[in-house]
Write a structure and sequence with these properties.
single chain; alpha/beta; Rossmann fold; 7-stranded mixed sheet
């Protein structure tokens, strides 16, 4: 029987609610996520019996999150707050002791809070801060999200001096005030424009507008499992490839890799990483997957990796995969409902599900991520 550390305690747990499983035994957390995944798959017609592997645990249970999107509250009558919205409200819970953030990122959030307390010229329109690091936690990028259509005066030099781990600062003007934290252009202000993540002997460039996993400690095992299942071949197709996280990690197992991604900044990151790492067997198609169905078929892939957003893949993408020559497919998902929907379409088209496994990418939270392995029937 696997033994796990004692449950994590957080002084903000009662007020915050962002980490809904705090205080629970970690084994129970893993079992709970497996149950959620199993129940969701069971509700989808056409999937039949599926071998569900135990939830893949995270090597780090605290201080793992390499990105902090924190709300900022500035008031004349109350001390400033940097933290998270309470569940079901827009009230900010100040979180100077957050247990899931990388320690150096938490330190940066505290430094920013101190600046606000000192009244150091930070504009009242500051509504969020987005702090991110790569494999080196002492090299961080900070995005100041301003609720305004016009660029205010910003104390960039004071922020630089106060936040010793920040080596790049950008600004996002988002006057909408909606649920989407970053919307529109990200304007570089000072220093480095990106962070770097080292995985599978590859250094990946990650710009402020590019998506990346928040728990780097799980990537080696995820890539090991993917590589063991796919077993190499001639052609690998990486759909919704982002900055090339999976395609570049697996490129040595294949003669050719084709990455398809529609977000321009992520495409630019992938190309920069290919050049920096001198990788010559990877091609990037800079179009949304839904508009790349012909190239998808033309890739003549033996194997496919797909990692779509929460919305999952559109039916036409699954149908095109069913028509392709692919014999093995790995589907990484951050939403059990859209995963089960898409798996049903793939099964109808001739794939057989070998295993499905929950992945604890975000310990202490209720977020359930999963990896499905499929073979051509």
């Amino acid at each position: 029987m696997t033994s796990y550390p004692m449950p994590i305690e957080c002084p903000h747990a009662e007020d915050c609610g962002a980490c809904g499983l705090l205080g629970r035994d970690y084994g129970d957390q893993l079992a709970s996520k497996s149950r959620v995944l199993a129940d969701t798959l069971r509700q989808q017609k056409g999937l039949g019996r599926i071998e569900l592997l135990p939830c893949l645990p995270s090597p780090q249970l605290s201080s793992y999150r390499n990105r902090a999107k924190m709300a900022v509250g500035i008031s004349k009558f109350h001390p400033p707050k940097i933290g998270y919205f309470r569940a079901g409200s827009r009230e900010i819970t100040d979180a100077p002791q957050c247990r899931v953030l990388v320690r150096e990122i938490l330190e940066t959030s505290r430094s920013l809070r101190d600046l606000l307390l000192q009244g150091m010229g930070v504009p009242r329109q500051l509504r969020h801060v987005d702090i991110r690091c790569g494999s080196e936690p002492r090299r961080q990028h900070l995005i100041l999200v301003i609720r305004s259509e016009e660029m205010p005066r910003l104390p960039i030099d004071r922020i630089r001096r106060a936040c010793r781990h920040v080596d790049g600062i950008s600004v996002n003007l988002n006057p909408s005030g909606g649920a989407q934290v970053i919307k529109g252009a990200i304007r570089h202000q000072w220093g480095a424009r990106e962070v770097f993540v080292k995985t599978a002997d590859v250094s990946l460039r990650v710009s402020p507008g590019s998506f990346f996993q928040v728990n780097l400690s799980l990537l080696p095992e995820v890539h090991r499992l993917m590589g063991s299942f796919l077993q190499g071949g001639q052609n690998l197709l990486d759909l919704y490839s982002g900055v090339g996280t999976h395609g570049l990690a697996l490129h040595r197992q294949f003669e050719k890799v084709v990455c398809i991604e529609g977000v321009r900044i992520a495409v630019a990151d992938t190309k920069a990483s290919l050049k920096a790492n001198r990788i010559g067997n990877v091609k990037v198609i800079a179009k949304p997957v839904e508009r790349s169905l012909e190239p998808l078929l033309a890739a003549d892939a033996d194997c496919v990796v797909m990692n779509p957003s929460r919305a999952g893949a559109r039916p036409e993408v699954c149908n095109t995969l069913n028509q392709s020559a692919a014999k093995r497919l790995v589907y990484l998902s951050c939403d059990a409902k859209t995963l089960s929907r898409d798996l049903a379409l793939l099964v109808q088209g001739g794939f057989r599900i070998q295993t499905v496994q929950a992945i604890d990418m975000m310990p202490q939270t209720r977020q359930v991520e999963a990896m499905a392995l499929l073979r051509r029937a």
